[in-house]
Amino acid sequence: MGVESDFAIVIGPGRPEVGPDSAIEKARLFGIDVDQIVRYRLAHVRGSLEGDQVEQLAIRLLTDAVGQWWMLRGEHQPPSRQGQVTVIETGLRPGVTDREGAELRRAAGSLGLPVSEATVADRWFVYGRLNPDEIHRLANLVLHNEVIERWQLDVLPPAYVDQTAQPPPVQTVNLGGLSAQELAAMSAERRLGLSVQEMAAIQAWFDGIGRPPTDGELETLAQTWSEHCSHKTFRALISTPDGRIDGLLSDYLRAATEQIDAPWVESAFVDNAGIVHFDDEFDLALKAETHNHPSALEPFGGANTGVGGVVRDILGVSAKPIAVTDVLCFGPEDIPSDSLPTGVLHPSQIRSGVIAGIGDYGNKIGVPNLAGAVFHDPGYTTTPLVFAGCIGLLPRGSNPTQPKAGDAIVVLGGKVGRDGVGGATFSSQSMTTTTAEVAGSSVQIGDPVVEKGLIDVILVARDHRLYNAITDCGAGGLSSAVGEMADELGAMVDLATVPRKYPGLAPWEVWLSEAQERMVVATSDPEPLLAVARRWEVEATVIGSFTGDGHLRVVDGPQTVVDLDCRFLHDGRPRLELEAPGVDYRRPPRPGSEPVPETVSANDALLALLAHPSIRSNEDVVRTYDHEVLGGTVVRPYGGPELDGPADGTVMVPPGTDETRGLAIGIGAAVGLGRHDPEAMAWAAVDEAVRNAVVAGADPTRLSLLDNFAWGNPTRPEALAGLVAACRGCHDAAIAHGAPFVSGKDSLFNEFVDADGHIDPVTPTLIITAVGVVQDLNVVPSTGVVKVGNDVWLVGPEDGELGGSHLDAVLGADRGGPVPPPDPDAVERHRQVHRAIVEGLVHSAHDIAEGGLAVAAAEWAFAGRRGLTLAVATDHGPRELFGEGAGRYLVEVAPDDADRFAQLVPSASRIGWVTDGDRLRVGPQLDVSIDEIAEAYRGHLAGRPAIADSGVGGIRL
Amino acid sequence: MTDTAAANSGSGAGNGVRPSVLIPIAPGTNRNDEMAQAFELAGARAHQYPLEAIRRGETRLSDYQILALPGGFSYGDALGAGRVLGLELDGWFRDQLEEARAREMPIIGVCNGFQALVYAGLLPGGDTRGALIENAGGRFECRWVYLQPGAAHSIWTAELEDPIWCPVAHGEGRYVSDNGRALADDDLVAFRYCRSDGSPADGQYPLNPNGSAGDVAGICDPSGLVLGMMPHPEDHVMERQSPHRRRPNGARCLALFTAGVKALAA
Fold it and tell me: Which of chain B's residues have a Cβ under 8 Å away from the Cβ of A38?
């Protein structure tokens, strides 16, 4: 190869930034007034290219045949006539996943062009008069994210990873004689996230064997013992005024599952995912994860790898991923940017990045996104939440879980880099203004193509029984994967064999790196597995073996990195003991200081509710997710004649099954109740998940549940007391419904500590996912009302509660009053509705959730493009129209079936009928057109509509 | 057929009356199972192979009667959707493709497969150049669309008269031809986005989801053997896949696949 040079090639035409998610809109959000922003792609290539080779590369690899051009950057200048233009370049930091750069280098190679390095960056022309401060803010807040990118004015040189870097050697860390205070300081300095008691246990163990730990051992213990990996809060011994809790997980969640003892549960809480029966041949694997901390720092990458991680969990039980779900919680989009603390991204930036990240990963691995929700609440401004779930399909009994002594350890998938080092410890601590700086390397960008390859390889390997055990490299990387599998068996790993993205990694970094797309399997005969991997172009390497001696030994060539007794690693952590004192964790809604009108127009209140960011249509989000791939989708997130009405639950026929039955997914949350009454929230969330599954056609006596907690710092008494109450609610509600929890994920320490030490905790949040079986696809109710003249029935009470309601949210003030209480009677109503569905009596149905009966009726009428005339009671006050509560449905039934329906659903009352008009009428108070509903529901209202006493149609608050 | 190993156990050769379809799977390809299912329902035998297995000579295109390139994100769509796969096809696979073209083999590419056929120079073919660029809306779109069939000479649209209905799921599906104009040769347009009654979408979003000039959703080559289209007919080959379960409106897409299979018998 000749002398290498750097080439910077600009690809045009530039793309003007327009539209809601564009840079120009974001700039305006930050008060930066720009005339126009145009983005050009900029390819950096290093190589000994000669003659017309640069032109060849640009034409064959960078431009299309129609309309695109290229030029060397030196010739690329903004037009002089258009006033002030600022040129800014942004590019990835070295080592961040760069699929485009890698493909450019590879493709150049296959064309015979000598290229040794390549990366693709952005070159921005910013038109408008900006001062230096505005330029800096534009670059920092809009055009790049410092966690993964760099920027510079005019010209940003490409940064490639140093290929000559030398790895640092293994270090020992002296713990001998350190005081409690010094141990705490070391834990903080190294960001280990270990308590003094845990540090002391490590100190004592190494004292006992007479040598200091290595850096690798300390990091391995910190990861394995982290909240993220060991769920120490959920396993902690908790003292309460009512007695001791022997772990929230075992006393509440697992206890409910054991008591229900459902025959369809194959395994719960033991593996990467819960496993339940689907039919006589297949099982479903269920898992839901959180990815909150990374998403707060790098929304696209955080959400992207959140999906990647939960899909890997499903692969970790040998199942084929067939559906993903996502629930997202953000702060208000209209919050002024100058009110945000340093280190916090604006909610609208987080939202657009997270949604793009979720879509990118699911779309690229070819797994449909079938269910989800988006909530906006001030309690998510500094701590946004990203819940990602996945459902998998596996033939019963096809997930081997026993590694044997002598088995080879094979790592499959992506190479190891510095990205993701320390992810588990980082996500187990509170966020501060400097977390972005110090924990930036914990955040990763996914590489879904690698994970797609893993899916293909593992399914072939599973069907040919090529491995004895499998697990994923989650947080903690190889240390947690191999550590978990080695359990009592023991293992020997040589890190020198582990494929690296680049040189210079410390041995402990290789051992802990959490590149997303990797799995570890145990196999007695590696060669057939390696052959399958080669056939699918997936990296696969034997890195060691399971020994049977109960020791975890990790070497890097001649150096010993880790030599730990597996028993100490897994059982040596002193159990956490917590006090949940008798603080009143409940915060009943109390009248606020905001003046509230005595009377409001019911119409205005309904339209304001429909436009509320947690209620309005998310169709624009859902359409960026592929919900059709695999061809199994039956009930989509949006349905009805125009395919724009919200479905409650969704249904798919798992590909490869016999087409006779479906799986249904229902998601429940009760975001408004979290800060008032966590126990009531748990009941409400379970109830909503069940309702959604029932409307989708699932049998409510055969549901399985997933729990996802997002809570603040559990060492604060009121946070812990609330968490205990929520777990108790989960336990009681699950037993009442006969629906076992099979897996879950708790995310704690969701709070932000600002520069002054002020703590902003997340709104306590619980997401429940219910997955069930639809026995007969032909009776699944439609989304949206169907037939003019059909009767409308209300199942459940005629009114609901207003405490913590969405009506209060749109009025901008808590007005006091009780929240919806736990309602064990709702269980029977779900079953009644299901019986009517099974008999084919239900044309359509909609659950009554956020915003109460009026919102449900409006969504339902809009979805079906039909009118409704309803009357619930003599008095149509706020409790009847907008009250919220458990176990309530609207159901559409033909008049001829009225008697049979009343017999099957004694809790129902007939409240009206479907009309061929275009109006929703509820009593004399509410009368709006479908067009008005559509306008509000699509979020096209300019700001909040004034809620005032309009005289006509007013309701007394 | 979801199990690639099972798919591979069958002989690639056209044994018996059911024609054999080769479905290559590049890194990042998906919807290969649906493509296989559609051809199986249409009476063919579908054989899925990783691209690397074909490169290594485990099977050859000459053993098949149809080539089908499925959707997905081959090579992560780096450098433009379908570009790297197109280069691969135009590189080491070129001889096999030329031999297949000489044998008048029907070829279909859907979504990413369409993008790859364009980069490989198989579509639109002749002197016309085209490209599939980022959707006018700047983002990925997943929604159901109606398609008016055209291109009377195409073997793939031969049996279609009424509009068909199926989902799109892509971020780069806006077809542009020389200088951004619609396809100059009208006869090569195999599908246009339309309303449910077949009248033109006239560029109106979301009927035309990506802003393609002339509502172009799919094109064929002058021989009528090669078809590329952005929407996914393989996702609507069974009644239960329709979003309007209770009001089936037909518009299924199986006829497209049976036409391709039948053309071989003719």
Answer: none
Question: Under an 8 A CB cutoff, do B235 and A19 touch?
Answer: no
Please check whether residues A368 and A506 belong to one and the same domain: yes
- 3-class DSSP state of A77: coil
Question: CA–CA separation, A921 vs A912, rounded Å?
Answer: 10
Residues of B in contact with A22 (CB under 8 A): 138
Give Cα separations from A761 to A589, A685, A714, A717, A819 (angstroms): 18, 21, 11, 13, 21
Set B34, B141, B166, B232: catalytic member: B232
Same domain, A537 and A625: no
Cα A327 to Cα A290: distance, rounded to the nearest angstrom: 9
CA of A623 to nearest chain B CA: how many angstroms apart? Answer: 5
Q: Which domain-ending residue is among A153, A171, A203?
A: A153
> A19 vs B169: CB contact, 8 Å cut-off?
no
Contacts of A466 in chain B (CB under 8 A): none
Q: Which of residues 345-374 of A touch B (CB under 8 A)?
A: 359, 363-366
Q: Where are the beta strands (DSSP E) in B134-243?
A: 141-149, 164-170, 174-177, 189-194, 216-220, 226-229
Boundary-marking domain end, from A99, A122, A153: A153
Interface contact flag, B52 A67, Cβ < 8 Å? no
A624 touches chain B (CB under 8 A): yes
B72, B176, B240: residue with CB nearest A653: B240
Q: How far is A100 from chain B (nearest CA, A)?
A: 5
pLDDT in tens, A162-171: 888 899 999 9
Residues A565 and A676 in one domain: no
User: Using an 8 Å Cβ cutoff, are A542 and A497 in contact?
Assistant: yes
Is residue B220 among the annotated active site residues?
no
Answer whether residue A236 is part of any domain: no
Q: Is the pLDDT of residue A510 over 50?
A: yes
- Catalytic residue (choose from B88, B111, B141, B166): B111
Any residues with CB less than 8 A from the CB of A71 and at least 6 apart, and which? A9, A10, A12
Q: How many domains does chain A have?
A: 3
User: Annotated catalytic residue: which of B34, B88, B234, B253?
Assistant: B234
* Span A94-113, pLDDT tens digits: 888 888 999 999 999 989 99
Question: pLDDT band at residue B1, thresholds of 50, 70 and 90?
Answer: very low
- Domain, as residue range, for A716: 599-956
- Omega within 30 of 0 (cis) for the link into B206: yes
Q: What are the catalytic residues of A?
A: 228, 291
Distance CA A426, CA A534 (A): 35
In this structure, the answer to whether residues A440 and A368 fall within a common structural domain is yes
Shared domain for A555 and A646, answered yes or no, is no
Confidence check on the interface: ipTM exceeds 0.90, yes or no:
yes
Q: Which domain holds residue B242?
A: 4-265
Which of residues 832 through 851 in chain A touch B, CB cutoff 8 A? none
A45 touches chain B (CB under 8 A): no
CB A97, CB A449: distance < 8 Å:
no
Residue of B119, B132, B139 for testing the chain A interface, max A β-carbons within 10 Å: B139
**CATH number of the domain enclosing B115:** 3.40.50.880
Into how many domains does chain B fold? 1
**What CATH number does the domain containing A54 carry?**
3.30.1280.10
**What is the pLDDT at residue B10?**
38
Bond preceding residue B124 cis, omega within 30 of 0: yes
Quick one: A533 and A639 in the same domain? no
Looking up residue A503, the CATH number of its domain turns out to be: 3.90.650.10
Contact with chain B for residue A163, Cβ under 8 A: no
User: Taking CB atoms and an 8 Å limit, are B143 and A655 in contact across chains?
Assistant: no
Q: Are residues A561 and A684 in the same domain?
A: no
Residues A517 and A391 placed together within one structural domain of the fold? yes
Q: Is the pLDDT of residue B14 over 50?
A: no
